[in-house]
Structures are given as structure tokens and as C-alpha cells.
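Sequence and structure are no longer studied apart. As an example, we show below a sequence and the C-alpha cells encoding its fold:
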Amino acid sequence: MAQCSIKANTEKCTCTYEPCSRKGKCCECITFHRQYGELPGCLFPPEVERTYDRSIERFVACQRES
């Protein structure tokens, strides 16, 4: 199994929520958002990610819009 690089992940992370303790820790991020019926911000376009609407419904709407 490949090792995760928190430093490399953090550099690529598009999440704009600054106090997030899960930046670069993708597995923790996915687990956190799943328990709330959400998806991580990195799956959304930047203009949608900034709204913090991480709902599955918003993700589907984004896919239809593109």
C-alpha cells in the first residue's frame, strides 16, 4: 500500500476552510464528511467549494451544470 504524504496532500488541498484540522489528511476528511452526508470540498469547483455546501445534492447539480 502506498504511503500518504500529508505535506504533498496539503499543498494540493483546495479546501478554503482555514481552521480545518484535516487538511492533507484525505482519509480523515472523507470519513468526516461522509458521516454528515457530504463530500469533501476538493470534489467541487472553486466557486462552489467556497460556499461550504458539500452536500451530495450540490455535487450532482454541479455535474449536471458542467
Q: What stands out?
A: Helices lie at 6-12, 26-35, 46-49, 56-65.
